[in-house]
Amino acid sequence: MRVERKRMGDMLLAEGAVTQEQIEEALTTARRDGVKMGEKLVELGYVTEDTIAQVLSNQLKIERVHLSEAYIDESFVKLIQGDVLRKYSMIPLAYDKENVNRVQVAMSDPMDMGAMDEFSIITNLQVEPVIATKFEIDTALDRYYSDAETAKVLERYKMEHQELEEQTEDEGDSQQVDNSPVVLLVRSMMQQAARQNASDIHIEALERAVRVRFRIDGVLYERFRYDIEMLPAIIARIKIIGGMDISEKRKPQDGRITLNVDHNEFDIRVSILPTVYGEKCVMRLAQKNALARDKSELGLTGRDVQTFDELLKNPNGILLVTGPTGSGKTTTLYTVLHELNTEDVNIITVEDPVEANINGINQVQVNPKADLTFANALRSILRQDPDIIMIGEIRDGETAKIAVQASITGHLVVSTLHTNSTAGAIVRLMDMGVENYLLADSVFGVIAQRLVRTLCPECRRERPVTEQDRKDLGVGPFEEIHLYEPCGCEKCGRTGFTGRVGVYEILRVTPRIRELIHNHASADEIRRVAIDEGMLTLHHNAKQHVLNGVTTLNEMLRITYEND
């Protein structure tokens, strides 16, 4: 099928998706950078890939497909190589029902005749183009072609590695760093993790193999397994791009990588640790523009949104965000800063590390080697005329005391603390040596949080309700409830879950609670009074998510066992 040639700019203008000025700017910068105009429009933020796909569909009268919902015939994996498909941003979907010599191919640019001609020459099949976004095609290629592509890279590596066996170990490492198959392997690994919304990549040395796992929505999934001989080359490549010492294999090392995937910039923190069978590497991925969210995206219930807004009206004092590692505390802190970031206030942060750069905010990176600790940085910050101070984490009594003093002298301080509950955070600060009367006067709110996985709405399945379920949820035997369980489909990557949502417990320090803090009350006493005054607990809010079909009962029990 030959598609009528139309100019991309004309089609976008006809649909009102962009202005003439935006088209001209994109054309100029696209020529300079050697990329297509459509890619440049997306990069500049004038349109999305989805908008372009829909405009192409409307103007060219070609079907728009969503690959997350499509089934792809896996026989195509042997028919044509993945690198050819990636070159042209295309993927074959299925044979035509009426003509076995024609195949439906999803393309991000259905007017690319060169791509269709090359596909036809290689496969001896006619192309019937349909439209999908580049992101959808790349994600599908990762899913269906990554095993074949990895096998090809490993084969190339083994062939080249055989020629290096007679060299010394140090020389071999140096050669492996520049070995193109390994470069491709590491880059592909990071890109696939980013597209699958993984928060961490674990590269582990087992006795006879290298295991690569992605942490997606808080759970580790094995994605690849390589020969153990690949480990030195993989680790050496990561050390190079992470700014670490490739000759040091006996000590732990930390590094940092910046990666662009599908027009999104990722900040990757790398940690390497020597283990029995070799070095283990963990890479933590953070999308720089994904941390500062709107509060409506956090998962706060209607009542908690109101309490959250009231807390942010305080001109001074301490607001704490607490929870275990990986519970989303940093995202909540950045959301708070996003809400408070106006032209008339001076906001300074001290973080370890700085997770994302925010326009209009002065951010300080802790550097223990230069004696720039949280406490030392805070002392200097207080001489910078701040209105709002964000402390990445209160780790010791010295930092806690300076934070309290800063709040009492008219500053708003927001910070995180590692405790399991809101009331526990108050007691933890007392244990750090902060005087109870100072604490009562300074802290005005504590937010405890957890993350639960959200069920995929496309494939979730209702299940029977048992007597134990009713007991866990605290509902009566005759109350009608609906519970769901994960199933798994193409859209959710067969996991049954799509993303995570926050579960919150917000404690406001009322006069009654302030009096309890003054009198050295226990965490249980503070919690009891807070509930009497209307605080919604983690258990209560998680239960609502279960009853609303957002998550599973097992997820609720996992995060609220200590509150039951």
* Number of extended strands: 18
β-strand amount: 15-25%
Which structural class do the helices and strands define?
alpha/beta
Q: Supply the number of helical segments.
A: 21
Low-confidence stretches: 168-179
Mean pLDDT: 86
**What is the alpha-carbon Rg in Å?**
27 Å
Helix content: 25-40%
Shape: globular
Strand order of the largest sheet: 12-11-13-14-10-15-18
Distance between the termini: 63 Å
Biggest sheet record: 7 strands, mixed
Question: Care to describe what's here?
Answer:
Helix content is 40%, strand content 23%. It has helices spanning 8-14, 20-33, 37-43, 49-60, 82-88, 113-123, 134-162, 169-177, 180-195, 231-241, 302-311, 329-340, 374-381, 397-408, 422-431, 436-442, 467-473, 511-518, 523-532, 538-547, 553-560, and strands at residues 90-95, 102-107, 126-131, 198-205, 209-216, 219-227, 253-261, 264-275, 278-287, 317-322, 347-351, 362-365, 388-391, 412-417, 443-455, 461-463, 483-485, 497-508. Strand 13, helix 14 and strand 14 form a beta-alpha-beta unit. The protein starts with 7 loop residues before the first helix and ends with a helix.
